[in-house]
Amino acid sequence: SQTIHQWPATLVQPVGSPLSLECTVEGTSNPNLYWYRQAAGRGLQLLFYSVGIGQISSEVPQNLSASRPQDRQFILSSKKLLLSDSGFYLCAWSLRTRAFFGQGTRLTVV
Amino acid sequence: DAKTTQPNSMESNEEEPVHLPCNHSTISGTDYIHWYRQLPSQGPEYVIHGLTSNVNNRMASLAIAEDRKSSTLILHRATLRDAAVYYCILRPANAGNMLTFGGGTRLMVKP
Fold first, then answer.
1. What is the 3-state secondary structure (H, E, C) of chain B?
2. Residue B102 — pLDDT band, cuts 50, 70, 90?
């Protein structure tokens, strides 16, 4: 069966520090991969999606970037975090009809 | 992108049916209607989806209006574990499976 791993579960980072969140999927090939962010008390905002290795589409301009170095690995990065980057970050994958989400990373920028 | 409109919140009593409405008056002919729910501090989970006909699965039923401009997610017997935010989403058939989330409906279940 397919599983999605996302880590870490929680993260506290100072303003200006770099960020790297990793997401891996098991049990499937060539999935579509997504990064979402949810600010406190708000809805989910699609940040990036990828349909293949090295193919990244950005939905929202920001100081974040994403990379897909391998078929089932999706990485969200930042060179310098802002306070406004705090939120709940979710990785997801899909093949045909439905999407499957990871458990999320709660990022607090202090 | 076609948009959906849902009530911000709803309340239900435990073990009673719940009908969660969703309006999508600008839906196109190839848009699928998806429902996801998000429990507190978790990622969303798939509930059900349909195109034109009503759908049933072990979690819920989806009733789709004949003109497809609205749909209703039906939980047949609400439990405390069903308390969550429920999202109604339109997914175009050629959108690469992107899901664009709206505000959703926060369902509160009273014992």
1. CCCCECCCEEEEECCCCEEEEEECCCCCCCEEEEEEEECCCCCCEEEEEECCCCEECCCCEEEECCCCCEEEEEECCCCHHHCEEEEEEEEECCCCCCCCCCCCEEEEEEC
2. confident
Comparing CA positions, the residue from A9, A10, A11, A57 lying closest to residue A33 is: A57
Cβ neighbours around B79 below 10 Å, total: 12
Contact B32, B26 (CB under 8 A): no
List the structure tokens of A7: 């880590």
> Which residue, among A92, A108, A81, has the nearest Cα to A32 in the 3D structure?
A92
Q: Which of B43, B96, B97 sits opposite A90 (nearest CB)?
A: B43
The chain A residue lying nearest B47, using CA atoms, is A98
How far is Cα A79 from Cα B3, in angstroms, rounded to an integer?
34
> Residue A102's pLDDT band (boundaries 50, 70, 90)?
very high
Mutation target vs B (from A2, A6, A28, A44; most B CBs, 10 A cutoff): A44
Length of chain B as a residue count: 111
DSSP state of A39: -
Each residue of B46-66: pLDDT tens digit?
999 999 999 999 999 999 999
